[in-house]
């Protein structure tokens, strides 16, 4: 009897949680994958990528000394309407390299200028590749 009561309570709590979770709405995100212009980051996308590269500490990537070829990753950064980096998603070949990219981006000092759409500042994202080559 106790097991049945526990099962009923457990399943009803899952149902209640699911209904609450489904009603949460996420604000829309504008895609600006074409690139980051100088007005979004001082110096533009290439300066942004160089600043990230300067902050990457290669000694944090396991096995870096024995690697050959290239490691590629793609970073996706969500910027809120205030210009603050809200979320960072990095996918790629090497987990340690991905983590180091995230750490480097989080350590950036500058805010990004938020994207404007129809006269309002909006939440947006942009993505860009990062490659590490070995000889």
Characterization of this structure:
The structure is a single chain. The protein is of the alpha+beta class. The protein contains 3 helices and 6 strands, in the order αβαββαβββ. The strands form 2 sheets. It has a 4-stranded mixed β-sheet with strand order 1-6-2-3, with helices on one face. It has a two-stranded antiparallel ribbon with strand order 4-5. The longest helix has 21 residues, at 2-22. The radius of gyration is 21 Å and the shape is elongated.
Mean pLDDT: 75
What percentage of the residues does DSSP assign to strands (E)?
Answer: 25-35%
Q: Which sheet architecture does the biggest sheet show?
A: 4 strands, mixed
Strand order of the largest sheet: 1-6-2-3
Spans of at least 5 consecutive residues whose pLDDT stays below 50 are 1-26, 32-36
What is the molecular shape?
elongated
Q: In angstroms, what is the radius of gyration?
A: 21 Å
Structural category is alpha+beta
In total, the number of strands is: 6
